[in-house]
Write a sequence for this structure.
């Protein structure tokens, strides 16, 4: 009989630990809404004890998507962390407390410097306490793949007796290999079934040796009923198991695995692109399932075979992962109706009346400049427009700019708006973009430093749109700014301003948080 594998997405927790992948609350909620469309079973929304911002974001996610998706958040095996998790997720319909505690000798001795018995007792006490708050508690035996097997089992047995409803076995450092990890899961599953068959056995793999997907699939074959993954495999170091890879492997090789998931696979590509857009972290072109070339066939022999029958060289269709609805081509003559339909196909709400009109006018400007507007272009246009409208309060807006470039003295002059004020500035720099950045930074009076600047072409054809991603550092935090335009200098200025606006917005949110006095951390 086919087993249903529960999918927990931890992009917003493990994935977000990646340097530069930090999202603001609005972005996290937007991504969580897409995870809901993707039909993941559980969203791990963050690590609420880590900061007030994370606490607020987890709570907002629980409030906005917790009606139909189970929401969890991570805490260490201490009361204050568990309280923070509980307070942030309790509004969700199916909240789940997730506790993590080391299980390997290295963790016990080096991280905690306590006896094995004392660490085990910490885990039991944490689960007992969590159970006084909620019925569903997941316990993660951190670094399980390097743990002493009998100690690992004793820990699992004790926390199950204390009330844990899910046991998660992580390969925290990506050390396991498929046969060995499968064997570990088989042995644990056998004992767990005898102890309490109601408890769900879960796995969480990292990709340090490029084996996360293989290890997760091996665990599924050996009895795991739940998997933890991230979109695009984002996560600590080399990342986590990539959700799209495991889900499609189970789907394409269903006869072999005899397992399926609830994932709406036609939303996979859209989810991947949204994450790329929000984090600014690109997917490698040949990445399985979501890479730009994943369904491209360039060799003549392959193209010939495909024309005869798709199955000759295709094991799954691009449509199955949502590639068909991503292939809309609009022009300036497409009209409001086609535009609205295309925006809806991308999963966005185009709005009505004035809102729709504003969006449509921006589309027409782009279509005039670029002639053919692809799905990519539309996606970035709508996302950017929504970000700007949501955050238009007292933030900087680029009204006009001019640059002069030469090898003597590249110069930029520009006009910005902030609220009701119009501000003018100019600067010289090593090049026109450097001049713009220097001038904008001086006018904004924000001591930011540019950490990263990247420019990509985001669509095909000679009239491609440039997408600029930057990262700024401001008072020890990293902020991302993105923008796209057919003019890369304008996109650069806009991305820089968006980064500055993200820093400003974060400062405003932080002030509002401390003024509201609602946070109980
Ligand atoms: O890698 C890990 O061990 C984790 C746990 C919190 C599950 O992320
Ligand atoms: Zn992890």
């Amino acid at each position: 009989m086919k087993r249903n594998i529960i999918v927990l997405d931890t992009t917003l927790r493990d994935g977000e630990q990646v340097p530069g992948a930090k999202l603001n609350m609005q972005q996290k909620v937007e991504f969580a809404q897409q995870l809901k469309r993707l039909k993941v079973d559980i969203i791990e929304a963050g690590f609420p004890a880590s900061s007030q911002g994370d606490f607020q974001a987890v709570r907002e996610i629980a409030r906005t998507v917790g009606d139909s998706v189970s929401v969890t958040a991570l805490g260490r095996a201490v009361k204050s962390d568990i309280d923070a998790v509980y307070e942030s997720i309790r509004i969700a319909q199916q909240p789940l407390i997730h506790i993590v505690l080391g299980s390997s000798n290295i963790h016990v001795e080096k991280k905690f410097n306590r006896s094995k018995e004392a660490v085990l007792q910490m885990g039991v006490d944490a689960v007992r306490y969590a159970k006084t708050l909620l019925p569903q508690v997941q316990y993660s035996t951190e670094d399980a793949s390097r743990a002493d097997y009998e100690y690992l089992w004793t820990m699992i047995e004790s926390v199950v007796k204390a009330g844990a409803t899910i046991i998660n076995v992580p390969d925290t450092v990506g050390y396991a290999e498929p046969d060995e990890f499968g064997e570990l899961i088989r042995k644990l599953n056998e004992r767990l079934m005898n102890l309490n068959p109601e408890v769900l056995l879960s796995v969480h793999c990292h990709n340090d040796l490029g084996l996360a997907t293989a290890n997760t699939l091996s665990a599924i074959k050996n009895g795991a009923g739940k998997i933890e993954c991230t979109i695009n495999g984002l996560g600590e170091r080399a990342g986590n198991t990539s959700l799209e890879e495991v889900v499609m492997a189970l789907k394409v090789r269903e006869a072999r695995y005899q397992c399926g998931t609830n994932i709406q696979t036609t939303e996979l590509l859209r989810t991947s692109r949204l994450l790329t857009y929000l984090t600014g972290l690109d997917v490698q072109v040949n990445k399985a399932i979501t890479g730009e070339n994943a369904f491209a066939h360039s060799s003549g022999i392959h193209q010939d075979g495909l024309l005869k029958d798709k199955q000759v060289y295709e094991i799954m269709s691009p449509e199955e992962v949502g590639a068909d609805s991503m292939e809309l081509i609009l022009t300036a003559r497409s009209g409001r109706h086609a535009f609205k339909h295309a925006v809806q196909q991308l999963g966005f709400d185009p709005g009505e009346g004035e809102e729709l009109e504003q969006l449509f006018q921006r589309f027409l400007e782009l279509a005039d400049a670029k002639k053919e507007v692809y799905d990519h272009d539309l996606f970035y246009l709508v996302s950017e427009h929504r970000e700007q409208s949501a955050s238009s309060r007292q933030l900087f807006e680029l009204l006009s700019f001019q640059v002069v470039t030469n090898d003597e003295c590249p110069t930029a002059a520009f006009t910005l708006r902030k609220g009701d004020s119009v501000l003018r500035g100019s600067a010289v720099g090593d090049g026109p973009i450097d001049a713009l950045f220097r001038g904008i930074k001086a006018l904004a009076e924000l001591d930011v430093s540019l950490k990263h600047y990247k420019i990509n072409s985001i669509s095909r054809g000679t009239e491609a749109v440039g997408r600029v991603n930057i990262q700024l550092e401001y008072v020890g935090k990293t902020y991302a700014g993105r923008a796209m335009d057919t003019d890369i200098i304008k996109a650069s200025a806009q991305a820089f301003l968006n980064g500055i606006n993200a820093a400003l917005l974060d400062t405003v949110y932080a002030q509002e948080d401390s003024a509201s006095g609602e946070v109980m951390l």
Summary: The radius of gyration is 25 Å. The CA atoms of residues 269 and 290 lie 6 Å apart. Confidence is low (pLDDT under 50) at residues 516-521. Residues 488-516 form the longest helix (29 residues).
